Structures
1.
Amino acid sequence: MKRAARASGTRPPLALALPALLAVAFLTLPLLGILVRTEWGELVDHLRSPGTVQALKLSLLVSFWALGLSLLLGVPLAWLLARVPFPGKALVRSLVLLPMVLPPTVGGVALLLAFGRRGLLGPWLDRTLGITLPFHTSGAVVAATFVAMPFLVISLEGALGGLRPRYEETAASLGASPVRVFFTVTLPMVAPGLVAGAALTWARALGEFGATITFAGNLPGTTQTLPLQVYLLLQEEPEAATSVSLLLLAIAMGVLIALRGRWTGTPSDRRPRPTPEAGPEDPPAVPVPKDPSAPAAAEAGRWALHAEVTGFTRLTLDADPGTTIAVVGPNGAGKTTLLRALLGLTPRAHADLRLGDEDVTALPPHRRHVAWVPQDGALFPHLSALANTAYGLRAQGVPRAEARRAARTWLDRLGVGHLAHRRPTQLSGGQAQRVALARALAARPRLLVLDEPLAALDQTTRAHVRHTLRTHLGAFGGVCLIVTHDPVEAVSLADRVLVLDEGLALQDAAPAEVTRHPRSPWVARMLGRNAWPGTATPEGLAFEGGGTLVATDPPPPGTPALAIVAPEAVSVHREKPAGSPRNVWPGAVREIVASGSRLRVLITSDRAPDLVAEITPQSAAELGLAEGVSVWTSVKATEATIVPL
């Protein structure tokens, strides 16, 4: 405790430290009593006595059967509580916890009234199946399962709660059925919680006493487990009872020591090993010659897209095969909702979806052939890069050898074939994104949706992966949707840009058109432009917050419109300018930010909306610009573009 206090730099208050020490002593003293009172010279003889050996064998039999039943029934129950919303869930969870707080003898009475010969279900079991649980070994198994299974359910539910659903959703998008996802993704990823729960369940079943003696009795060789043997020995041979108690104590401590810090974490507690980002050893992927046996999407077929999306996101989307659409918009615009509606993974929106000639609206996610690449890739951490890439093909029934050959081909195409044996924690960000893309393309999707696939990468790695995407999306036979906040990605990767705001499509046009005439203030600012909404007038635009902008060729008066002005078209002066500018406003410098070799200056004014000017560092020095300095700004009427909304 002193070392911990020194490490934290503070001393624990005595009012808290003293009761804590007393609590430790209170818990430790009874255990010390067993150690002190054990007759060590007779320990082996006590443990080798026929009655003790018989009780130990029976305890192991009962506890392992109880563990098996708990796994069979408790694992699905834990999944239900963690993953499925349903009425009365709180009540069901309370029922699961009840045996943990219920006095064991009361639990035994409850079992007797349910499964006894005069219980609710006991007569039917005896009459129909010939099963009698009380005073039988099976009764001891039922009693142990009743009190021990909650430990498994609670531990596993916590682990499932820590597992983010995107792994399971990604597996479903690759074609894996719910059952396959559960056994190949969910359970392996929550293995620590499952092992912890199983160990605690087994230890609790091994030490069960009250419910067993009340429901199953205390028959030597039939229901007399080791705890019941201790109870009998305590009356006749206290020294032997102490020795057997020491055995149970050692088993319990062994379980806890094995669990300590090793199996009690959830998947979110795992920390990937640091790896360098893409560098000279991870060059940009280059196209490789096509292998006749390669599973290229273009060779498998071509699928147009038609979607009618309703709900929070409302739009109609049509695209020809081979089209890449960038989906942009502010946070909350409905971008992710659109993708999840196409995947069939959200109740917020519904998509009537047709891919090629097939209507997949009524199909579950794993049968839609819509592959999803989340922002972080969601590679399955328990599988190698090769196994990750082959996952979709295996889920679709492709033989293992063929699936692995196709997976290796895709990894080679994306320049990461040499990393096939590595786990995701051994990959850099750029490498992991390429593997995630290879996994999606290898699954032979008809629609590919990428949710900000480059957002987590540095600039150098992002350029490499962007090159990879551009190269391989050109050969994709379906439609690709890319959610992005990066204007470079939208312009360089997409054939069309779909602009969303509050669930509605504001613009759906070629990147060049969206760049020249953005119809959303957010998109204009994303592109680095000044964007001011207002209402058209005969001379230009009346701003919503007051002020006017004179522009050439304004739309008809009264039309809601957006004024677009490039930052480099804004002139900055220390004195009010004279001459041709039609738009001149006073203001003050609020912020100066470097942007490449130029400076972006944010200027506020009470006569016009905030605007950004882009100037050279030399000009800024000559003007003596700094935060708070008063300036004048001017914009020529010919430099302002008015876009009707």
Note: Residues 262-266, 268-299 have pLDDT under 50 and may be disordered.
2.
Amino acid sequence: MRMSIKMIVGYILLIIIPFLTFAYFVYSQMNDKFIAQYQLANQQNIEQLAVNLDASLVKIESLYSIYQNNNALIEFLRGDYTNDRDLIYAYLKEIVPAISFSYLGDKLVRNLTIYPKYEERLLNVTGFKAYHELEDVIKTSDWKAMGPKKGIWTIDSIGQVPTLAYFHKIYNDSYSNDLGVLQITIQPIFFEEFLDQLRSLHPNNVILLVSQDGNIVYQKMDNTFSRNQLMEIKSSTLANGSKTLMTDRNQLLVNSTGLSRLGLTIIEINKKDAMFTLLRHKKWWIAGGFALLALLTLLYYIFVSSLTKRLLLLSRHMRRVEADSLNHPYTGHAGKDEVGFLILNYNAMINRVDELVNRVQKVELLKKEAEFQMLQAQIQPHFLYNTLETMRMLARANGDSTVADMAYSLGDLLRYSLSKQDDTTLQDELNNVKRYLSIHQIRMRDLEYEISLEEGLMTMKCPRFILQPLVENSIIHGLSKRRGAKRLDIRFAIEQDYAIIEVSDNGSGISVEKLSILRQVLAGEAVGGMQTQGTGIGLTNVAERVKAFFGGNSGVMFSSLPGEGTVCSLRLYLKENGDAEVNDRGR
């Protein structure tokens, strides 16, 4: 199925059909069934609002755990603080922030008070009152009957809108003894918002809040209802326990639900005439809605056509693109929107792919030519090996072990250098460096080196000649210019997702200007390469091969202080290297 057809079908399924279904529902329910559905919707609305109100009450009740689990508060209520200085410190450090959190965390909290049962200090500060003052805000029988698992809600209906307060005892760590009572007073706006939500759908409704003993705690109504009508509706609702009913010769629709936490029953009364008046007032709005739907459908069709046309043309062009026709970008109208952005990036991608294909072919040709020239200029390696081995045997026969060892190390260096393998392991790289250093130690008697290994890294795959250029750079440019003891340290380590190889020396160091240029060259921000002597492999070459092989943020980094030495680090990203999993690192 084409995209344009999908968009049209989706518009019909998601917009047209739901709209027509809703319109049919409104006009087809003008009978007793519609009244029942209307009343059921009212019931669901009032129950949902009651659930939301109950959830808010649960959220407020959860504040109790903050104080029950506050060690400083429990220790204070137990009287553990004998020193006033410790008490004041605990109050400011632990208790005050907990009290402030209740005000900041819930805008419905109007006041929070703790009544210590045994402790008589801090009764004059905010948040604490004497234990005997509980008798003024809650019945003694109520707060004495409270258990550890549940608190008590109280309702003060003296004002125009009822005010709620939550009481809960605070216990010691083992809940074997109560230490005081927590009181959380709720803002009057809590009930006001709930009542406003009930009246938002039915502005002329009547709302009653009835307590368990049948008293009307709150009522919101106009003057069209007599008190006898209200008493009759209240009695019928409480007596029958019905959530929905019709009274006054089926002219009044009554919905009710309970608030178990508060011990209240909410009763909503709506006039039946209001329902039909609402429908008559909305008749022209419904007609206008159909006209608007038709207009939007036309505009949507025009918009979809303009959008899908360019996409279809682009998809047809993409089907014609093949490996030998990459240099033919899309030439249609692009535009400045997201589709135009897609077309421009597609053309850029095609040009880039064509450029990369040509570059890869050119690189392959150059590589083959270089290999051919190298083979022509290369001395037979076996002849060199045999010559060096003969020199070593003659030196050893003449008792010159130093020359023999040097010839042996040089032979191994040549074998490693002339090897045709592209990749190796860090262990082989380290062995090659050791042979290289053994030759330099013969030439530089005061050269010492130390190697710190991370065994899990030594089997890791890596490109050849990434370590020797770093060591050679330290010897030639750092240690060779130093008089006295020369020291070289090579450290292998794992830091997070990277393998770190550091080559540090105590040589002459690098000046600030040269170090800045070196970092720019290694980062690719400046033209030029840093070439080592002897291997012919530059540091930039090492950096580029490391980035290509390991990916990520891999590369070569330098830090140096003139006259104190230089640290050159290889940073190798492990996740890009399939041979360097976590299990292979000795962890």
Note: The two ends are 54 Å apart (CA to CA).
